[in-house]
Write a structure and sequence with these properties.
The complex is a heterodimer of chains A (about 280) and B (about 260).
Chain A lengths: L2 E2 L2 H8 L5 E4 L8 H10 L4 E5 L4 H8 L3 E6 L3 E2 L3 E2 L1 H9 L6 E4 L2 H12 L4 E4 L7 H4 L4 E4 L6 E6 L5 E10 L4 E3 L6 H7 L2 E10 L9 E3 L6 E4 L17 H11 L2 H13 L5 H5 L8
Chain B lengths: L7 H11 L6 E4 L3 H11 L6 E4 L3 E2 L13 H5 L3 E2 L2 H9 L6 E4 L3 E2 L5 E2 L2 E3 L4 E4 L6 H7 L2 E5 L25 H4 L7 E5 L3 E5 L6 E6 L5 H6 L6 E8 L5 H18 L8
Parallel strand pairs in B: 1-2, 1-5, 5-10, 10-11, 13-14
Antiparallel strand pairs in B: 2-3, 3-4, 6-7, 8-9, 11-12, 12-13
Classes of the chains: A alpha/beta (about 280), B alpha/beta (about 260).
Chain lengths: ~280, ~260
């Protein structure tokens, strides 16, 4: 049952050291404010899952909070590589991390299987790829009817799923529109879920096939205006591509990264995100 | 129009765009494939269906997206589906006629590495990884690849097999149980390559204007095969060049900053 909490209280209540957490968002609606709150609270030894770990996973990993990363594409899209993730994998700084690497098709299927309450996902994939040599969680299975060889991966069942959505009504029903990614699957697959939203409204004012998470599927709702920045929120504000481009040199240098995190994350609170989207708002 | 009037990068994007047809349903990779696909849409293939893995189907962006999930893609799409549905119904379901990919490393049988340079457990350079490519390579009816030529990229042996092209050549795909055609075309900044019908080894079928066989060989780590019927790629038309340059200019302006300064 959705509980309206401050982001600080929601994170404190639902996420603990050693948990498996998924912060989802496929370019759109990335839960930046929630990840920053986790960093401020220093919740560590996390296993983090995401199809497209970008800046927030670079930050979580660079701050030494991650034990294991499960992913399918670790890049700053259109810009390049993730410098902090690379430093951790290549040099063990600030700590070595374990990685479990998949393809997008595998993780998308694994989220769906998690939401569907299945132990594994079955799909046609990984044919001839070397990922199955380095990842023991990629198996082959034969169709019991046709004999066709298919791929199988474990379903994803996170302890906590974090997503950012457009809005919630006062009961806590949540609306996601635009590029919806795998957020619905992530929330339904998780034991607990924390949803930050742009605004809480009287009526969702939507259409009959909209992507809705009913209030009883969500653990906590936190109103954080701008909470996806520098990602975007369809109909609210555009993607801050310049910030993604500017991130590269910051993340490339350990000291510069630490100073940036101190100034822009550790010393701040979720309320700063409303300022960060100024000038990026979409005019209706 | 002479060979001095355009750059090798422009020739690459334009030659790649020509491979696409109005009836294609194309799964678009980010970077060079995205440029090629949108030039096709803005010139000879206005009705092409462009699909990005973020779930946008039939998108028509005015600028090139920086990521595969920019709002521009969703705003202009016929419809947007979940990423799960994209990979299950549309890609795995066989609805994609052409998957268009880029790569960091490629070998002579069009296998691709986008995972690591060096050893997997102790990489020299950790690259982003496969993303959608492993299944785009096996589930699209065929794939096109576009990338610039360099000895670092065109290697004798891949450091990692991210996406299966033609394996060790010949009928290797069929022996793996893969029923799709795989890579049928490679477009670079210097040439157009196609796999040999029998051996599946990539063969240069057309040199871009101003390029020589020697120049092609200098940027490839294996002994390059050239077609007996080697062609010259037609130079870009004025329309192709102006569409590409206008698209790049709009994109550069948008990515430099979309923030409106407010008092």
């Amino acid at each position: 049952m959705a509980e309206f909490l401050s982001l600080k209280d929601a994170v404190k209540k639902h996420l603990k050291s050693g948990d498996t957490a998924a912060f989802e968002g496929f370019t759109h609606l990335i839960p930046h404010a929630a990840a920053h709150e986790v960093i401020r609270q220093g919740i560590d030894e996390l296993t983090v899952i995401r199809m497209t770990p970008d800046l927030i996973y670079d930050q979580l990993i660079g701050m030494g909070l991650v034990r294991k990363l499960i992913f399918s594409y670790a890049g700053n899209p259109g810009v390049g590589l993730l410098r902090r993730v690379r430093d951790s994998i290549e040099n063990g700084w600030p700590r070595p991390i374990e990685i479990e690497e998949h393809s997008h098709a595998a993780l998308a299927n694994a989220y769906e299987a998690g939401a569907a309450g299945l132990p594994c996902a079955v799909f046609r994939g990984y044919m001839g790829t070397e990922l199955q040599r380095v990842n023991p969680n990629i198996k082959k299975i034969n169709c019991p009817f046709t004999g066709e060889e298919l791929a199988a991966v474990p379903s994803i069942r996170p302890d906590v799923a974090f997503i950012h959505a457009l809005k919630a009504d006062r009961k806590g029903n949540v609306l996601i529109e635009g590029i919806v990614g795998v957020q619905k699957e992530a929330v339904l697959a998780a034991t607990h879920s924390i949803v930050t939203v742009e605004e809480v409204v009287d009526e969702l004012d939507t259409h009959m096939n909209a992507c809705i998470l009913p209030h009883w599927t969500v653990s906590a709702i936190c109103e954080v205006r701008g909470g996806a920045h520098p990602s975007y929120a369809q109909g609210y504000y555009g993607r801050d591509n310049k910030t993604y481009i500017d991130w590269d040199p910051i993340a490339a240098d350990r000291e510069r990264f630490q100073a940036w995190m101190e100034e822009h994350v550790l010393k701040q609170g979720p309320e700063v995100f409303a300022d960060r989207i100024k000038g990026l708002e979409v005019t209706p | 129009m002479t060979a001095q009037d355009f750059t090798p990068d422009e020739m690459m994007a334009i030659a790649a765009s020509r491979a696409l047809s109005n009836t294609d349903v194309c799964f678009v990779g980010i970077g060079p494939p995205s440029a090629a696909c949108n030039i096709a849409r803005l010139t000879h293939a206005p009705d092409i269906t462009l699909i990005y893995e973020s779930g946008t189907i039939g998108t028509a962006p005015d600028i090139l997206p920086l990521s595969i999930g920019d709002g521009e893609l969703c705003d202009t799409a016929l419809t947007t589906v979940s990423v799960t549905e994209m990979f299950r119904y549309w890609l795995q379901g066989g609805k994609i006629t052409v998957g268009f990919l880029g790569a960091a490393q490629i070998d002579r049988f069009a296998n691709i590495n986008t995972t690591v340079v060096g050893d997997y457990d102790h990489p020299k350079v950790r690259l982003p990884g496969g993303g959608g490519a492993p299944e785009i390579s096996s589930s699209s009816q065929e794939t096109y690849i576009t990338m610039k030529q360099s000895k670092r990229g065109f290697v004798e042996k891949l450091d990692f097999f991210t996406s299966f092209g033609h394996g060790e050549g010949g009928d290797h795909r069929t022996r793996m149980g893969i029923t799709t055609k795989g890579p049928t075309l490679l477009i670079t900044d210097l040439a157009i390559w196609k796999p040999d019908p029998v051996t599946k080894e990539l063969t240069v079928v057309s040199l871009h204007p101003g390029t020589t066989k020697e120049r092609v060989q200098q940027t490839v780590s294996w002994a390059v095969r050239f077609s007996d019927d080697l062609q010259e790629t037609p130079v870009p038309t004025e329309e192709e060049l102006s569409v590409l340059r206008a698209l790049k200019a709009r994109t550069a302006a948008a990515h430099a900053g979309n923030r409106v300064e407010t008092a």
